[in-house]
Amino acid sequence: MSTKRIVLFIGYLLIFMTTRSFAQFPEDALRLSLSGLSVGARALAMGGAYTGIANDFTAVYWNPAGLAQIRYYEISGGIGHLGYKNQSTFFGQSSSLSNNSTSLSSAGFVYPLPTRRGSLTLAFGYNRSADFTTALAFNGFNAVSSIIPSLYDPDENQDLAWQLYLEDSTGYTPIQQNVGQRGSVLENDGVKNWTIAGALEIIPKLYLGATLTLISGSYSYTRNFIEEDAKRLYTKPPFDFQQLVVDNAIDWELSGYGFKIGMLYNIRDRARFGITVKAPSRYTVKEKFQTDGLSVFKTPDKKGVYQYTASVSGRSEYDVQTPFVFGGGISLNAGGLVISGDAEYADWGEMEFKNPSSNISGLTKKNHDIKSLFRATTNLRAGAEYAIPDTDVRLRGGFVYQPSPFEGDPSSFAQKYVTGGIGLALQASVFIDVAYAHGSWDTFHVNYDQTSRTDESVTTNNLLFTISYHF
Fold first, then answer.
1. Sign, Cα dihedral of 441, 442, 448, 452
2. CA 401, CA 121: separation in Å to the nearest integer?
3. Pairing between strand 241-267 and 282-297?
4. What average pLDDT does the segment 451-462 reach?
5. Residue 357 in contact with residue 319, Cβ under 8 Å?
6. Backbone angles phi, psi at 350, to 5 degrees
7. pLDDT digits over 105-124, tens only?
8. Rounded Cα gap, residues 134 and 131, in angstroms
């Protein structure tokens, strides 16, 4: 795997250590650029291969041109649940941690306008386009390094190691290796889209549409990191070190906008072909962070103190511009069987930071890092739906393959999902859909450099319920 990712995570950690190093990091841009799968239970059950179908409210997300197919009023809503589990390995020791979230995934209204020919349809609503829920735990003995040297800062007011009495006046600390390290990381919240969309049939069976999105949302990151003299090797005052605790917290407030256009062509009601272009979205990130440190020693100093505390905090603001995303999909209808496939292309090196606040430096370098760290990828999605004869029941299944956007990552780092679900029509006016998706992939993180690294195996379970009323 690429060593460039190590550089990314080292830099990302430094954001927690000092207000002067407050900056934008490539993973921040990526987090806002990636989209989720959980908009619409029918779409999720079919692996998100919905560009060539898009015949309900969720077309505002998948392909707005599909709205022009709808000839009835529609009110719909959905609730989603995400379960995230991370099995990590840290210096040969295994740990596991889970995190869950339940939220409103979509809610909307479709309004077809009366026309003399063709169709014109509007839609308004909400969808949750990304979920930031993750978790990580680790615990092991590190014989080669310590986090303490990385806490050094030339400015004593920002130097946690100095404030916690873990280094001398020159910045030196004898605590360089042979320490126990453990901790946990939780990420939460997500991106919310408030949409208005419209579509029309410009000639028979050819539809064009567009979606304008106003973005809101939030992101939270918390990390508890503990380092201790597990083998009692540091016994000489003043560095008779016992334990260090570092708590990091980051909170974002998000706002922004996005735009997507789509085309859909119906070929004799047997096949549909769709194309979408998602223009670069613009996010404004208002960020605040705080790092709290606690050091504990085995014997008291002259004042009888065993432990010391320190804290640094700060705020910043910046914009993130996401890349263009190009999508294409086709669906085939053979009696009661629908088969669909999608491909979606994005060059993640096109992500860009803009308009940093005054306490952010190195903007040009950060954007150059993005060009170096990320690559273009093509996501692949496939799905099928089968209508059981003489019933109002539809069975669905699908598969998703999303390569890692990091340059040099192996195929094991690609996100893979197996999906399935069921749909039920009640009196041709109420539709209930349930979907499930199981995802898996490998990844890694570093705590401060490559000498303190967790290798991880992630599994996710998405459950989505949607109900719609047509009248």
1. positive
2. 32
3. antiparallel
4. 97
5. no
6. -85, -5
7. 999 999 999 988 889 999 99
8. 9
